Known about the structure:
Blueprint: H1 5-8, H2 10-13, H3 23-26, E1 28-32, E2 37-39, E3 47-51, E4 55-62, E5 65-73, E6 93-98, E7 100-106, H4 107-113, H5 117-143, H6 146-159, E8 165-166, H7 170-177, H8 181-193, E9 197-200, E10 203-206, H9 209-216, H10 222-231
Antiparallel strand pairs: 1-7, 2-6, 3-7, 4-5, 4-6, 8-10, 9-10
Helix pairs in contact: 5-10, 6-8, 6-9, 7-8
Amino acid sequence: MLHDPACTNALLHGLRPIWPEGLQQALEFTELPAKLMLERRGRPCTHAYFPASGIASLVARECDELTLEVGLVGREGMIGVGLILGDAPSLTDAVVLVPGVGWRIEAEAFRAAMVDAGFHARMLLYLRATMAQITHNALAHARCRLDLRLARWLLMCHDRISSNEIALTHGAIALLLGVRRAGVTVGLHELEGHGLIRSTRGRIVIRDRAGLRRMVGDLYGGPEAEYCRLLGRPVTACRSGGANGGGIAPG
């Protein structure tokens, strides 16, 4: 099962039973350790990655400093969307946030697969779903209090893992959200005070997913519903159970 790309990545799953010629043979199983850089801003993508587990973060840079996370990718999607449009240089860095494993394919082989009408159409649908997430992220950054942004971000991470535990430091989260570390610490303590999470050094445990959803309201769920509408599978399909409401499709 682990070495079947159609069973471990939801985007590839939708290609069954007819795959583009040569695609399966071109996919290479690979480790995705934490902090591995999968894409660099301004450089052409050498590979597309289809995670089977873990999370990658799409990060916008200003000069040489990380400034803001604009997207999250797990086993629902892929890294390397520039290849969908041809040979466009990446607009963001893509770095592994939560370690996992996955599949990768060289850019040339990906472009060859794009000749297949079904594969081409599915990749374009995913590109639209990615744009929906990035657009909604921009709105959330502009209008949300930090505690709501944190709650929404934790839900999005939780969607993409099968555990209720997220191993990240406050400093790493602050860097991704473009805020001060002290603000992240205060915001997480507020969520903890409501019994929604448990936060310790380098580790956050989701205790009440349903409570997090009630807290964020319509700030969460739009891009998730769009992904399900376009690709016929909820983002949360990677979850197996979870804390008080994990595994439910967005409504």
